[in-house]
Amino acid sequence: MTAGETAVAGDLKARPLRQDDARGVALLVAGYFAELGVSGGMSFEQTRQLFATPWLEGGSGLVLEHGTDIVGYGFVRPSQWKGSDSVQFGLTLKRGYRDREVYQLLAAPLLSAALAIANERRIENINIHLRKADTFHPPILFGLGFHEHPVSMLGFSHDLRNIPNRPLPPGFTFRTAKLPGESPAWLGLMTSIFDDRGRQGEPINEAYLSLIAAKPGFDPEQVLVVEDQNGPVGGGIIDVATAGPGGIAHIMQIGVLPACRRRGIGSALVGRELNWLKDHGAGSALAGMFSSNLAATLFWRLGFRPDPSRTFRFFLRDTVRTAPKPPRRH
Asked: Which of 118, 250, 278, 324 could form a disulfide with 239 if both were Cys (CB 3.0 to 4.6 A apart)?
């Protein structure tokens, strides 16, 4: 069965994801985060806005319906994992719809679609990430052949009370990126900064940059560039999850070119972003990074502290199945 086919069992059916499913999926995702007791990565409206972007290009999505209610949602798409091609797998099931007989209606065709993408593009693994607080989806993934990876995504938060003063070193200046005209150059800069993706993860992509820049109330200060007389050497980006007083924002990425590291530029970037958030009434700043990323020590020095609600676990599944070994003869 492929992701374009329909599976029916009683009042349940899995069908292809449509753009007009945005509201139903947003409600499902909001309920999932409420069940976990954590804030979501995107607001309800931002989840809806996502469906107007080409974020699923090259992949496909499915929803699981019970009558007119969306009780499950999943997607597969080409992506990057630790610097290599991978297939990203997403799966969210409402409470009461996590029994094997039910979730297989959604998970089985999604897995088939993921394997088809992997076969076409010669990709060796499928990846999915889940909040550490999520204890109900991992057993489903294990049943689908996934295993947990030893690297996790550490979550950090900052209460914005005490922001250390970290000025740029002499010869360097801040400016805002001029979007959308400078989008390709800014994305290229971040690609150069992420020179060790096995430890750092992946730089932000064009679709997500466009999504952030298109949100109501977007401020150019959210996308920064650090440069010297020779041009850009570093940059950072903020994604506002909840606008207004007491809101939550994510420092999505900050980075400096290898030749300019260990001069205090990264600290100055983070300090600038924290001050901008405080000046705009945010209640906290969130950040995340691979457990293998040495930048974790930088964030600790600047006042960030571990936030378990923002910690993610990674699960992988091989796409190449080896033949079973013949039984040993005694």
From this structure: 250
